[in-house]
């Protein structure tokens, strides 16, 4: 860290800062400029005390970090792309990953027909919420264990891998018994105890970005999973809250490029929650691929108008087919294929 001392600080005040830096376990290296002094504090910022508290001293102008706060998630610690093995399906390499399925698991017919349709179009992972995080307690909360049973049945019938959301620590064990990927939703993206419990299962985890989460915070949440011994993390950009009202959320494609630059973890884009409009899904998918995403997670429903959740943003089977026909040139441009 770098501690910038105010101009006109006395020798005693500078000595006080140097002594504090030493006390906190760093090696101080003062640099006396013509107008101001800075003290470089040498040591690992991630394991040593945070020197930002020194800014309470009147002679300290500012304290600057040098190292990133995340380590295991960073490209510096792991320059090559991480490949995550989802029960035999590799995510993060040249093969682009398509995850698709309904927002919520509603019944057997709905789930199985969707599974067959998305599989025929090229998806390898079936999404479907059994436990739903709904804004209102009066809205459909998901089928729970029955939903998990139907997801397991869909896997048995189609061979698709399963991604489904885990909402609470209480559910981790039985959701992990069915899921090939555990989804941690936007509302739980900084529920650190849930992240730790999910990490312990060793299952791949798709970590959504929180609605008002900065990229650094998102990567620090991923760091929790990695630091608890689970390297199988998929980052998922799903839009953030902004002032815009044309869309439900603002899909932050710049964050996809930043996450790919800063981290070695695969990045998946969710255009469905990302904009909340079925008519924009294809365009956003093309954009996501161009920005370097490793996969997409898309809501697909046999009759979106009758969906029990998020009907306005789910594409029907024909819409999903159209998407599959539109993306190949974008995939070729980034040397990927489905
Ligand atoms: C979902 O995938 O249906 C969902 C609720 O996602 P998010 O956590 O991104 O809102
Ligand atoms: Mn949804």
Q: How would a crystallographer describe the biggest sheet?
A: 8 strands, parallel, barrel
Shape: elongated
Q: Please work out how many helical segments DSSP would assign.
A: 11
Could you give the order of strands across the largest sheet?
7-8-9-10-11-12-13-14
Helix content: 25-40%
**Could you please say which CATH topology of the largest domain applies here?**
TIM Barrel
- At CATH level 2, the architecture of the largest domain is Alpha-Beta Barrel
Low-confidence stretches: none
Question: How do you describe this structure in short?
Answer:
The chain has 338 residues and is an alpha/beta fold.
Descriptive report:
- By secondary structure, this protein is an alpha/beta fold.
- The chain has two domains: 63 residues, Alpha-Beta Plaits; 250 residues, Alpha-Beta Barrel (TIM Barrel).
- It contains eleven helices and 14 strands.
- Bound molecules: phosphoenolpyruvate and manganese (II) ion.
- The site of phosphoenolpyruvate has 10 residues, from loops.
- Manganese (II) ion binds next to loops.
Task: Give the helices and strands, then pairings.
Elements: E1 2-5, H1 11-23, E2 27-32, E3 37-42, E4 60-64, E5 84-86, E6 89-91, E7 97-101, H2 108-121, E8 125-127, H3 145-158, E9 161-165, H4 172-176, E10 181-184, H5 192-200, E11 205-208, H6 215-227, E12 233-237, H7 253-262, E13 267-269, H8 271-275, H9 281-290, E14 295-299, H10 317-326, H11 328-333
Parallel strand pairs: 7-8, 7-14, 8-9, 9-10, 10-11, 11-12, 12-13, 13-14
Antiparallel strand pairs: 1-3, 1-4, 2-3, 5-6
Helix pairs in contact: 2-3, 2-10, 5-6, 9-10
Manganese (II) ion (MN) binds next to loops.
């Amino acid at each position: 860290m770098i501690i910038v001392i105010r101009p006109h600080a006395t020798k005693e005040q500078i000595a006080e800062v140097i002594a504090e830096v030493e006390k906190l376990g760093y090696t101080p290296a003062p640099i006396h400029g013509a107008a101001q002094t800075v003290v470089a504090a040498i040591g690992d910022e991630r394991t040593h005390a945070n020197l930002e508290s020194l800014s309470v001293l009147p002679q300290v102008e500012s304290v600057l970090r040098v190292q990133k706060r995340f380590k295991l998630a960073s490209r510096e610690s792991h320059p090559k792309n991480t490949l995550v093995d989802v029960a035999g399906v590799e995510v993060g390499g040249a093969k682009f990953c398509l995850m698709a399925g309904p927002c919520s698991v509603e019944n057997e017919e709905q789930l199985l027909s969707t599974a067959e349709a998305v599989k025929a179009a090229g998806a390898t992972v079936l999404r479907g919420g059994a436990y739903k995080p709904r804004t209102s307690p009066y809205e459909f909360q998901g089928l729970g264990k029955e939903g998990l049973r139907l997801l397991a049945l869909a896997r048995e019938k189609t061979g698709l891998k399963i991604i489904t959301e885990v909402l609470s620590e209480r559910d981790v064990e039985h959701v992990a018994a069915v899921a090939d990927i555990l989804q941690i939703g936007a509302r739980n993206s900084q529920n650190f105890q849930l992240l730790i419990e999910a990490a312990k299962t060793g299952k791949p985890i798709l970590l959504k970005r929180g609605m008002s989460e900065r990229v650094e915070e998102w990567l620090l949440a991923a760091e929790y999973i990695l630091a608890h011994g689970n390297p199988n993390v998929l980052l998922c950009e799903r839009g953030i809250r902004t002032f815009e009202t044309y869309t439900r959320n603002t899909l932050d494609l710049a964050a996809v490029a930043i996450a790919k630059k800063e981290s070695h973890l695969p990045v998946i884009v969710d255009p469905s929650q990302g904009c909340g409009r079925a008519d924009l899904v294809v365009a956003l998918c093309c954009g996501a691929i161009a920005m370097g995403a490793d996969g997409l997670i898309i809501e697909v429903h046999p009759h979106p108008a009758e969906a029990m959740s998020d009907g306005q943003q789910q594409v029907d089977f024909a819409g999903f087919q159209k998407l599959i026909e539109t993306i190949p040139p974008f995939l070729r441009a980034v040397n990927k294929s489905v």
